[in-house]
Amino acid sequence: MRLENSLALLTKGYAWLPDLRRAHGRQAVGTRLGGLPAIGIEGPEAARFLYDEDHVRRAHAIPEPVQGTLFGKGAVHTLDGEAHRVRKAMFVAVLMDGAGIDALVERTTTAWDDAAREWATRPQVVLIDVSAEVIAGSVTRWAGVPLADDEVPGLARDLVAMVDGFATGGPRHWRARRARGRRERWLAGIVEQVRDGRLDVPAGSVIEAVAAHRGLDGTLLDPRVAAVEVLNVIRPTTAVAWFLAFSGHALARWPEYRAKLADGDPAFAEAWAHEVRRFYPFAPFIGGRAPQRLEFGGQTIRKNSMVLLDIFGQSHDPQLWEEPYEFRPERFLGREIGMFDLVPQGGGDPRTNHRCPGEQITVALLAALGPRLARLPFDVPADQDLTIALHRIPARPASGVLMRPAGGGLWD
Fold first, then answer.
1. Nearest residue to 23 via CA among 33, 12, 34
2. How many Å apart are CA 54 and CA 73, to the nearest integer?
3. Does 411 map to a domain?
4. Average pLDDT value for the chain
5. What is the pLDDT of residues 237-269, one digit of tens each?
6. What does the alpha-carbon distance between residue 316 and residue 323 come to, in Å, rounded to a whole number?
7. Given this model, what pLDDT does residue 314 score?
8. Looking at the 3D structure of the chain, how many domains does it have?
């Protein structure tokens, strides 16, 4: 009899599944969540197993609270098979092909440099908050969505709320739902204006592509679903603010890296981006449902069981990463990363399966903004709470990483 583990997940957070596997000494371990049978798996072969649609499917697998806050209802994440491939092709075209990422990085770094001059006039700033404002404004305009300067702070707060509230039942969750409803209505209205010719948007932009996209049945997306998919570009991109907060945390804990990151060497900046995504907790696991009875790691997986890939455990697996609980960006210098090894944003081929096509955006933005962060004439003062609670999903430094003009801080 498998014991219900929902309470253990709530109390342990990111540590729940790794602890459960260690307690049983297995790569795969059975459990129950929300009354449903589940199996937790970890490792490159586990990731390969999960991303095979013959083994695991996403349709009807994402809980409503997560759809209602993080992904949105009707999103590409909820599709399988040909319907998923058709919708995914739209994201690949606007996020991965052509010079789109370079344009986004250029727009964002320019906005960061402008904002940094203004931050220097304040007594202090909270890194996760100001980063979110810079990125939210940049990616939304890059996506072709019209946005006034005075609308950026409110939009950033809503996008952050959607990420911050998907895995809790408290006030954060209800803030996330309200934020999602507000932004879906806003973007659905813009999609309708684009379709009926009342609003001109840049050719090749995200908003144009989503407004014109036709599904497997040849029909345009419902305006609300189209809004969901626009949010599935600008929301996860804005979530790079978490990784920038983690970068600030890393520079405070390991200040010896500051000069090296500030130098701007592209190879080291990219290695830094990978190590921040590996070392720090963001997504605890990802899952789907087994469409048939299966076997993995000596465990039987019953039909319709949940299959959970332990992302946090895999990011700290000593068989994959030497001294996994040490922060070492240099581990990625000259290293070929297997398609199913580093999986903080999924595994496999982002063009065909459920790996996030925005992962390249995350890495590119972190590699561009990390050196700029290290060069800021700011300090991270010691009188703040930089703890990262693993029971909180998504985790973040408690203070959000407070920064003040230089002089007497942890970066000195």
1. 12
2. 24
3. no
4. 91
5. 999 999 999 999 999 999 999 999 999 999 999
6. 8
7. 96
8. 1
Q: What is the 3-state secondary structure (H, E, C) of 358-389?
A: CHHHHHHHHHHHHHHHHHCCEECCCCCCCCEC
Q: Which amino acid is at 195?
A: R
Are residues 41 and 28 in contact, defined by beta-carbon separation less than 8 angstroms? yes
**DSSP codes of every residue in 42-76:** -SHHHHHHHT-TTT-B-TTTS-HHHIIIII-TT-G
pTM: 0.93
Host domain of residue 30: 6-405
Q: Which residues contact 304 (CB under 8 A, 6 or more apart)?
A: 36, 289, 290, 291
Please give the radius of gyration of the chain, using alpha carbons only, rounded to the nearest integer: 21
With H, G, I as helix, E, B as strand and everything else as coil, classify residue 325: coil
Residue 409 vs residues 70, 215, 253: alpha-carbon distances, Å: 35, 53, 12
- Give the burial class of 171: count Cβ atoms within 10 A of its Cβ; 0-12 exposed, 13-18 middle, 19 or more buried: exposed
Q: What SS3 state is found at 356?
A: coil
Whether residue 412 is contained in a domain is answered as: no
pLDDT value of residue 112 = 98
Distance CA 193, CA 200 (A): 8
**78 pLDDT tier (thresholds 50, 70, 90):** confident
CB 44 within 8 A of CB 313: no
Helices 266-279 and 359-375: crossing angle in degrees, nearest 10, is 110
Q: Is residue 288 in a domain?
A: yes
Tokens representing residue 279 in the block: 């070392």
Calpha distance 157→305 (Å, rounded): 36
| 376 within 8 A of 251, measured Cβ to Cβ | no
Whichever domain contains 291, its CATH number is 1.10.630.10
Is residue 97 included in any domain, yes or no? yes
Rounded mean pLDDT, 165-184: 93
Cβ atoms of 306 and 287 within 8 Å: the answer is yes
